[in-house]
Amino acid sequence: MITFLTVVSLVLALVIVAVVAYHLIGIYGALKRAGDHLEALAGGLTAIRDHSVPLNGRIDAINAGLAALLPPLGGTATSLGTIAAALKRG
Q1: What pTM did the predictor assign?
Q2: 43 and 73: one domain?
Q3: Alpha carbon distance 11, 6 (integer Å)
Q4: Which of 20, 43, 47, 88 is 20 to 30 A from 2, comparing alpha carbons?
Q5: Biggest distance spanned by C-alpha atoms of the chain
Q6: What is the distance between the alpha carbons of residues 14 and 9, in angstroms, rounded to a whole number?
């Protein structure tokens, strides 16, 4: 009887070790894929940083141009609102 219980205990221990090893291998694979994706993301962000450096000197000019467009666009929005209200009434 003791031999039987010893064999069953060893088999159960091996099954538990195998299941834990299987899941640890899965976790390692998932972490490896996540690391690869993070590396690709870091490379993309570095490229964005490098390609956007020339914009630093032009942002003020772009902002001034957009600020100049704001009053005419506001007037256009008001006119379109008036036209829409007239079309609803009529």
Answers
A1: 0.51
A2: no
A3: 9
A4: 20
A5: 97
A6: 9
Identity of residue 64: A
Q: Report how many domains make up the chain.
A: 2
How much is the average pLDDT of 49-73? Answer: 87
Is residue 30 over pLDDT 80? yes
**CA dist., res. 62 & res. 1, Å (int):** 87
Residue with tokens 């894929």: 33
Give the separation between CA 49 and CA 42, rounded to whole angstroms: 10
> Do you know the residue count of the chain?
90
Structure tokens at 89: 């009434």
85 and 42 share one domain: no
